[in-house]
């Protein structure tokens, strides 16, 4: 069995990320877990202050381990690693839209340099020609790393087969780290050795009921998705000045507007998504941290108000936005339903009448918001 704990630790202070991660580790150890997976975004969202490095260092120390791997690749969504450089499609990470990320702008694509800046150890690389030779070659290369200063071993991956190879090679490593892609390899290897057991996606099928789209991401793909969806459904942009002037009143205004559109063919959308130039002006006026926090507060309050109004389906764009919405709605566990786009399924709360589609900023195709509703209808 796999136990997953979701934490909002990507961009909080490093000390908080470490504290929450160690608390999660302690609980998992108490449940009898033997292998631990620190999952981060496939675009390695972080800064020189963290939080990937500080959390990995703390987990290694707590587990009494000296080394782990770095494997953010998710080829199905265009995230590949070659010679230690992270690519988004055909672009280096720092040449993609991630260079404009409002919270963690990525200005380097070399994973070794990125982790060394924020961690307390050195990085090594197992390059693709070794990965392509299979699990035994990867395991041998890991064993051959004999520099005690090396804490992080970056793994190249160009295809899902490379992730399957890694999964076999890492079956005995106590602490692994990566994006969601590495989990494919680990899970496949586990299932082949121990037998697969899982629930049908039917348990996670979205409920019937009023829906809303909440978009907080400013990624390139989400900008395209919002632009497309605005032509199909009722949509309203967030007025950040209103968030600072009287947040409570503004939440009531938006709640009433969304509620008035509840019978529209496609769900109404509230979006804070904007292009990089406008985002820079907003951050200059209100401050990076203050503007991000106020938008999160808005979406949290709006989600709670809409839940109280009987809304049962929430389609959310952006990792930070998804996290705050799920926390506010009191989601503690959910059934995983059908896949909308690679890496983004519908999920259904195990205790409450709530269905959610939680989308990382750059995931999904341009028609994601509409497809999430149209392809999984209960007519």
TrEMBL record:
Enzyme Commission number(s): 2.7.1.217
Provide the leader sequence positions. Answer: none
Please give the superkingdom of this protein's source.
Answer: Bacteria
Q: Which InterPro entries match?
A: 4-carb_acid_sugar_kinase_N (IPR010737), 4-carb_acid_sugar_kinase_N_sf (IPR037051), NBD_C (IPR031475), NBD_C_sf (IPR042213), OtnK (IPR050007)
Q: Which residue range or ranges hold the Four-carbon acid sugar kinase N-terminal domain?
A: 2-185
Q: Which reaction does it catalyse?
A: 3-dehydro-L-erythronate + ATP = 3-dehydro-4-O-phospho-L-erythronate + ADP + H(+); 3-dehydro-D-erythronate + ATP = 3-dehydro-4-O-phospho-D-erythronate + ADP + H(+)
The record's listing under SUPFAM superfamilies reads: YgbK-like
Four-carbon acid sugar kinase nucleotide binding domain ranges (all copies): 212-369
The UniProt keywords, alphabetically, are: ATP-binding, Carbohydrate metabolism, Kinase, Nucleotide-binding, Transferase
- Gene Ontology molecular function terms on file: ATP binding; kinase activity
Give the UniProt family note. Answer: Belongs to the four-carbon acid sugar kinase family.
Give a short account of what the protein does: Catalyzes the ATP-dependent phosphorylation of 3-oxo-tetronate to 3-oxo-tetronate 4-phosphate.
> What is the designated name of this protein?
3-oxo-tetronate kinase
């Amino acid at each position: 069995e796999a136990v997953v704990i979701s934490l909002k630790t990507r961009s909080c202070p490093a000390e908080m990320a470490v504290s929450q991660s160690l608390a999660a580790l302690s609980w998992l150890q108490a449940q009898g877990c033997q292998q631990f997976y620190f999952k981060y975004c496939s675009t390695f969202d972080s800064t020189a202050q963290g939080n990937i490095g500080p959390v990995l260092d703390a987990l290694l120390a707590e587990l009494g381990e000296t080394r782990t791997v770095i494997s953010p690749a998710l080829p199905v969504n265009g995230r590949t690693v070659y010679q230690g450089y992270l690519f988004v499609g055909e672009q280096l990470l720092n040449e993609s839209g991630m260079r404009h990320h409002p919270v963690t702008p990525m200005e380097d694509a070399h994973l070794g340099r990125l982790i060394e800046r924020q961690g307390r150890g050195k990085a090594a690389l197992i390059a693709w020609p070794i990965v392509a030779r299979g699990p035994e070659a990867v395991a041998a290369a890991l064993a051959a790393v004999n520099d005690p200063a090396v804490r992080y071993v970056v793994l190249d991956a160009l295809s899902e087969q490379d992730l399957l190879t890694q999964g076999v090679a890492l079956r005995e490593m106590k602490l692994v780290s990566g994006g969601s892609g590495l989990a494919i390899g680990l899970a496949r290897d586990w299932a082949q050795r121990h037998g697969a057991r899982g629930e049908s996606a039917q348990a996670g099928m979205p409920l019937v009921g009023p829906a809303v789209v909440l978009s907080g991401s400013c990624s390139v793909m989400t900008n395209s998705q919002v632009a497309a969806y605005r032509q199909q459904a009722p949509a309203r942009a967030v007025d950040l000045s209103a968030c600072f002037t009287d947040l409570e009143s503004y939440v009531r205004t938006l709640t009433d507007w969304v509620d008035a559109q509840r019978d529209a063919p496609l769900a109404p959308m509230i979006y804070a998504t904007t292009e990089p130039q406008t985002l820079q002006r907003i951050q200059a006026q209100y401050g990076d941290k203050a503007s991000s926090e106020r938008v999160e507060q808005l979406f949290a309050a709006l989600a709670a108000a809409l839940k109280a109004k009987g809304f049962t389906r929430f389609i959310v764009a952006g990792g930070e936005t998804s996290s705050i919405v799920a926390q506010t709605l009191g989601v503690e566990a959910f059934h995983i339903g059908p896949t909308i786009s690679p890496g983004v399924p519908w999920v259904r709360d195990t205790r409450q009448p709530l269905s959610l589609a939680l989308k990382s900023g750059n995931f999904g195709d341009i028609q994601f918001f509409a497809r999430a509703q149209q392809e999984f209808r209960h007519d």
